[in-house]
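thread from #wetlab-drylab

HS: before we spend reagent money on co-crystallization trials with guanosine-5'-triphosphate, can we at least see a predicted complex? here's what I'd submit
DV: go for it
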Amino acid sequence: MATAILLVGGFGTRLMPLTKNTPKPMLTVAGIPVTEHQLKMAKAAGITRIVLATSYLAELFTPYFGDGSKWGMQIQYAVEKSPLGTGGAIRNAAKLINSSESIVILNGDVLSSHNLAEQIRQHEAHGADVTLHLTKVEDARAYGCVPTDPNGRVTAFLEKMENPVTNQINAGCYVFNPRVLESIPLDTVVSVERETFPALVASGAAVYGYIESSYWVDIGTPHALMNASTEIVNRDGDFLIMPGSKVDSSARLTGGSSVAGNCQVLAGALIDSSIIESDCSIGSNAQISRSYISKGTKVEDGAKITSSFVTNDEIISIP
Ligand code: GTP
């Protein structure tokens, strides 16, 4: 069965200050870290072995995920002393995998419900070098786009442009033939999107697209992060409270808000369309709307917080 590498070592600068002390993939979406959503998605596709490719704040993953047994998975860690870029990170993590089977790569900031098992199946049926999940977006101008021929073969990797030739974009989940990974140089900074993929296509390698436009979101920007969490919560109700948190019966949660574990929400608090990370305390009659409250933050009684990122040190308006 395929092994997966999760790329979780980026700086996440677009989500500062949330990412000052928490790596982007460890940010909370609908009560649990983004990476945990991905583990569940990978497991549903039959993957039980994962390598986390870490760098920035690498030490924060192991205490949470350990050896993976809590999720019925085997998790290993490949740590880059300094970030090697997406391609360098994949190459470095692949050193831990000695297998002739397909290797799945997941960008650590994407939530996707596409059929990964089918992506792997098509990759193997084509005998492909790489198969990328491609999704269609309404407006592709903000993305590089990836055209394919009628057989699904990728014909180019195009940079962002005003008039995209297709609305198919790289969705950040790849299946690699392990031999192809070995062509990426070791201990070198490489971008898989800007260097490896265009070079493979130019050399005539068998690079295929797996096109599926089911639920997909890149949580790398503030609004996408907030929307992803409230949308996921809204699938099953108006709010979510994780086990181990105490919410006073007179407090009101709404708009897809989530409260992660070990929090306390006091009497009369109102939390709308917001994400509360673990270990927070929300004071009585506090009003929090469309905001992200970081791990361990104490919100004062009666505080009014709107459209803000809140850490223990600062409150900034969501850009
Ligand atoms: P921004 O700084 O906000 O652009 O975020 P980012 O640094 O996370 O970059 P980007 O969104 O382009 O990265 C896509 C995925 O690859 C994310 O899950 C990152 O964690 C991961 N990633 C990016 N660069 C590296 C790296 O050098 N090493 C590792 N291990 N992962 C990386």
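DV: Residues 3-218 form a domain with the Spore Coat Polysaccharide Biosynthesis Protein SpsA; Chain A fold (CATH 3.90.550.10).
HS: ok that's useful, forwarding to the group
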